[in-house]
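BUG: 3D viewer hangs when loading the predicted structure for this chain

Environment: internal workstation, default settings.
Expected: structure renders.
Actual: progress bar stalls at 90%.

Input used:
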Amino acid sequence: MLADQSGNLGVSGRVRAFRGCRPRGELAERVAAPPYDVLSSDEARRLVQGNPDSFLRVSKAEVEFGPEVPPDDDRVYERARSNLEGLFGRGVVHRDPLPCLYLYRLVMQGRAQLGVVGAVSVAAYEAGWVKKHELTRPDKENDRTRHAEVLGAHTGPVFLTYRADPEIDRLVAEALTREEPVCDFTAADGVRHTLWVVADGALVAGLEAAFDSLGALYVADGHHRSAAAARIWRSRAESGVGGADRFLAAIFPDDQVRILDYNRVVRDLNGLSEAEFKKRVGERFFLAAEVEPVRPSKPHEFGMFLADGWFRLTLRPGLAEERDPLGRLDVGLLEAHILGPILGITDPRRDHRLDFVGGIRGLGALSQRVLSGEMAVAFSLYPTALADVMAVADAGLVMPPKSTWFEPKLRDGLVFLEF
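Structure tokens produced before the viewer hung:
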């Protein structure tokens, strides 16, 4: 049975210190793993080979079973619990003796983002202080709910952001001058991960107060994890058990957060020939053939790849609602003017003819899927602006699916929260 740490969290405050569980510094690189939802089960199985301490054995425990065992099988969750207890038992991970905050820096291609890892109030999330911009899928929400319930822990951080605040910047800078990193490594994908423990009482209190004074936090990535935490909290409250009133979050200022493009590929042209399809697209976009792959340079510009090459699409004037936080989003404009009326994709969340390709994979991943015959057309998009994400969340609206691809990805297992 994992230890109950709820007594360390207090009963008030939006962001608080907690007794983090984390690997010994020299083992952090071996333990820390990509988030559970960016890898297929087969990819994760390959990554854990020869590494019994990989956190994927906790966050994605189906890696220890054959493909005949589904990821939501009871045995998978029980194995995750057993593997987590094994990490404690072997001394690979330990619990900090006192509540702390943590600083987490990621450096990718020379660009750094530095945030604070803390325990965020589920009640504040439910009250709307933590703002969302996506709908969740029931199957994924169910999975993370069961995973956390069986483990008694939130093992992966929700990625939150906020409008940059000078006082938080000052306190973080001060903490960096006082503390030495407890781990610092570069992962196989070239991203450097560094973690500091902030145990000084005055610094902790100052950071907690500074976060509590913010107007809002925003979910960047991790809608399913935060929704699962809320479900567990409500269930425990209704049953009289209580606790589980906070979830794990890594919180970064908006001026350091990077969003990449999130592109689309479609399996067929909805019965149209390529010539007919291009004619229909040309009614709403200016088309220009291009020799090189098209990476859009501004909003309302798109790349399109067909078997005969790349095209640059520019939305015709008057077709975007610039004052509407949803009406000006390129992901929505593509749906409104091509995917829906021309390709017949009316439910992008569930239509299996449509697939999504993160910008980290490059434009070559788009053309390859069309040239292979798997897909008929691909679209490259300009990255969604974080200001637009916040505007949608502030308005209480929901963005189209797969609107944002945040990089770099936070690692699971660097520090986690028991409840």
